[in-house]
Amino acid sequence: MTEFLQWAKNKLLVDKRLLLLYCVVYFLWGLGMNWFGTQMEIAKFTYWWQVITCYILYMVPISLLLRGFPFHKQYAYGLIAMCLLEFGGYALETSYAYPGNILESIVGQRSFGLAMALFFALYFPLGNWGVDRLYRLIFPKKVD
């Protein structure tokens, strides 16, 4: 356990600018997805501030832990994380799935949560890729 905690601590100790960029990107991404889910009547958070708890306090640290892993590992570990989040959100009723939504009509009501987890697990490899590209663009390395 000590070995894991040391590994995690090293992965989470990043440049403050990078951490801020993750928080901004994921916050805006979360607001956008919550808005889209509401507009399309697929699913939404019960409270708007859940974007902060889910996207910044939950997904940003997981993204940092998964940085540097190959796409398939980020997706696989991200899928575990998103299954827990989706299950918890619907079990605690802090997330709301619109009855008969378009996704349910495609995958069925019983598979809705799994479909959401499968989709949102892509956030980790895509988010890491996107934030890395933005970080390099905004803060290019200076060559002496």
H/E element sequence? HHEHHEHHH
How much is the average pLDDT?
Answer: 94
Helix content: over 70%
What is the strand tally? 2
Which spans have pLDDT < 50 for at least 5 consecutive residues?
A: none
Rg, Cα atoms, Å: 16 Å
How many discrete structural domains?
A: 1
Shape category? globular
Estimated share of beta-strand residues = under 5%
Please, could you describe this protein's structure?
This protein has one domain. With 144 residues, it is mainly α. Helix content is 72%, strand content 4%. Helix 2 crosses helix 3, helix 2 packs across helix 7 and helix 4 packs across helix 6. The model has no long low-confidence stretch (mean pLDDT 94). It contains seven helices and two strands. The chain is globular and about 55 Å long. Strands 1-2 form a two-stranded antiparallel sheet.
